[in-house]
Write a structure and sequence with these properties.
Largest sheet: 5 strands, parallel
CATH class of the largest domain: Alpha Beta
Strand content: 5-15%
Shape: extended
CATH topology of the largest domain: Rossmann fold
Number of helices: 18
Radius of gyration: 30 Å
Strand order of the largest sheet: 2-1-3-4-5
Number of strands: 18
Helix content: 40-55%
CATH architecture of the largest domain: 3-Layer(aba) Sandwich
Distance between the termini: 57 Å
C-alpha cells in the first residue's frame, strides 16, 4: 500500500510536534497546520489521505472545517479530536462524514489505532472504486461490441469481474471458465478479450463438442489445397484465424482424448502445420477454454487429459449459477425486459411485484439463458404494460396462496413431468441429446415424451 499522507490541524504546537514525531517513525508522510487557512492551502497543493482535525480552532471551529473538506475533497478521510466529554460534537462530526475520533487527553497509540482503522476503510473504498471503474469499462466494452453487458451487483459477480480485469493484462495466460450451462461463460471470455491488449484483434469462438475426429486437424490447423478429398483451396485453421487475438474453446470437456493430445502439443509449442504442408507456422494466440463439467474430476477418472487440464487452468474463473446470486435477478430481468420491449416496440413495460417475487424464488436450472427466454416469452404473451404471473408459462402451474404469500407445489404428475422436460431443454440450449442426459433417459424416450406433451422442438435439433 502507498505511504499515507496525513495532515494534522491543531492550534497547539506541542501536540503537533508530538504527534508528528510519533507518526513519522511509522513511515507516514506528515503535514502540519496551526489554523484552517493554512490547512486549506496544503489540501489544495497535496494529495492528502487523512486529516486529523481538532474541533476547537482559531478562524472557525472544526465542524465547519470538516464540512468544507468534505464538500471540496470528498475522498479525504477525517479523524476528529474532541475535548473530554464533548460527545455531542463527536456525534455531529460523524453525521458530516468524519470516519473516526479520539479524545484529549490521549495516548499516541490511540492515534495510531484510529489511523489504522481509517487506513483499512480507505483501502476498501479504493478497491470498491476500482471495481466500479472495472465494471463501467467492461460493461461499456461488452455493450458496444456485443450489445450484451455484464449485469449484477452481487459479491460473487463483482469478484468475477475483478478477476477478469486482473487476468486480461496477462497476455499469454490460459484461462479456464467453469460454470453451469447458461451462466454466461462466453460473455466472460469475450470480456477478457476486450479488456486485454488483443482487443483490436479477432475473438474466435469454437464449440468443441461439434468437431469430428476427421475434421479436427483441418479445422484447428488448416489445410493445403488437394491435401484430401474436398480440399479445393488453401484454408487457414482456427489458430491462424485468431492470430494475435483470442481463441475461445467452448465445451472443452466434450473434446475426445485423441484431439486433446494434438491440442496440447500446439499449446506447448505455439506452432502449427497445415494438413498437407511441411511448413511450420508460429502462432500467437491467447486460449480461453470453458466447460460446464468438472474437468479436474474427469482428469482423475482418465476422461480428460490431466496435462491438458493443467495447461488450460493456469487461471480459473468460476461463474456462479443464477440461483446463488438471486439479488441480481431483478437487474437482469429489467435489462432483458427493456431490451426485448425495444425490439417489439412496446413502451413503459414493467414486471408486477408478484411476478418479481416468483422470479427471485425460482431456481433457474437454465440460468441467465433461461431468464432471458422467460422474459421474452412473457413480453410476447402480454398485451398490456405489466407482466403478471399469467404471462410466465414456467410458473403457470404453481398456485399462489394469498394467505401467506408462499408457493404451493403442483402435484399433478403429468404437469410436473412436462415442466421438468421443458426446464431440461432450456438448460441444455434445446440440445435433445444433452437434455436426455440431464433427465437420465434415452434420446428416443425424450422424443416420445415431447410429442406426448406437445412440447415445441424450438431449435429442431436431432
Amino acid at each position: 500500500m502507498e505511504i499515507l499522507k496525513i495532515l494534522v490541524l491543531d492550534d497547539e504546537e506541542r501536540f503537533r510536534e508530538e504527534i508528528s514525531e510519533y507518526l513519522q517513525k511509522r513511515s507516514y508522510e506528515i503535514y502540519l497546520a496551526e489554523k484552517p487557512s493554512v490547512a486549506f492551502s496544503i489540501l489544495e497543493a497535496n494529495p492528502i489521505d487523512i486529516v486529523i482535525l481538532d474541533i476547537k480552532l482559531p478562524e472557525m471551529n472544526g465542524l465547519e472545517v470538516l464540512k468544507i473538506i468534505k464538500s471540496k475533497h470528498s475522498e479525504i478521510e477525517v479523524i476528529m479530536i474532541s475535548g473530554h466529554g464533548d460527545m455531542n460534537s463527536v456525534i455531529e462530526s460523524m453525521r458530516y462524514g468524519a470516519s473516526d475520533y479520539f479524545q484529549k487527553p490521549f495516548r499516541l497509540v490511540e492515534v495510531n489505532q484510529a489511523i489504522q482503522r481509517t487506513q483499512k476503510f480507505i483501502f476498501l473504498n479504493r478497491q470498491l472504486q476500482q471495481s466500479k471503474r472495472t465494471i463501467s469499462i467492461l460493461t461499456e466494452k461488452l455493450y458496444q461490441n456485443l450489445g450484451s453487458p455484464m449485469i449484477g451487483s452481487s459479491e460473487s459477480i463483482l469478484e468475477v469481474m475483478d478477476m477478469m480485469q486482473r487476468v486480461a493484462s496477462s497476455d499469454l495466460t490460459s484461462v479456464l471458465i467453469t460454470g453451469e450451462s447458461g451462466t454466461g461463460k462466453e460473455l466472460v471470455a469475450h470480456g477478457i478479450h476486450l479488456l486485454s491488449n488483443r482487443n483490436n484483434q479477432v475473438f474466435h469462438s469454437v464449440n468443441c463438442s461439434a468437431i469430428t475426429d476427421s475434421l479436427f486437424e483441418s479445422e484447428f490447423f488448416g489445410h493445403k489445397k488437394g491435401s484430401y478429398t474436398g480440399a479445393f483451396d488453401d484454408r487457414p485453421g482456427w489458430f491462424e484465424v485468431a492470430s494475435k487475438g483470442t481463441l475461445f474453446l467452448d465445451e472443452i470437456g466434450d473434446m475426445p482424448l485423441g484431439q486433446q493430445a494434438k491440442l496440447l502439443r500446439t499449446l506447448e509449442d505455439r506452432k502449427i502445420r497445415r494438413v498437407g504442408s511441411h511448413q511450420v507456422i508460429d502462432v500467437d494466440v491467447r486460449v480461453i477454454a470453458a466447460s460446464n463439467q468438472n474437468l479436474e474430476k474427469m482428469s482423475d477418472e482418465n476422461k480428460f487429459r490431466g496435462d491438458l487440464y493443467h495447461r488450460l487452468s493456469t487461471f480459473i474463473i468460476h461463474l456462479p449459477p443464477l440461483r446463488e446470486r438471486s439479488e441480481d435477478i431483478p437487474l437482469l430481468a429489467d435489462h432483458f425486459l427493456q431490451s426485448f420491449a425495444s425490439r417489439l416496440n412496446k413502451k413503459n413495460m414493467s414486471i408486477s411485484e408478484e411476478a418479481q417475487l416468483m422470479l427471485k424464488k425460482y431456481s433457474f436450472p437454465g440460468n441467465i439463458r433461461e431468464l432471458r427466454n422467460i422474459i421474452e416469452r412473457a413480453l410476447i404473451l402480454c398485451d398490456g404494460e405489466i407482466l403478471h404471473l399469467q404471462h410466465f408459462p414456467t410458473f403457470r402451474n404453481s398456485n399462489h396462496d394469498g394467505k401467506n404469500g408462499m408457493l404451493r407445489k403442483e402435484f399433478d404428475l403429468e404437469v410436473s413431468e412436462k415442466r421438468i422436460i421443458e426446464e431440461a431443454l432450456e438448460a441444455s440450449g434445446y440440445n435433445k441429446s444433452k437434455a436426455a442426459s440431464l433427465l437420465n433417459i434415452t434420446w428416443q424416450s425424450l422424443n416420445r415424451r415431447m410429442k406426448k406433451f406437445d412440447i415445441e422442438d424450438t431449435l429442431n435439433q436431432p
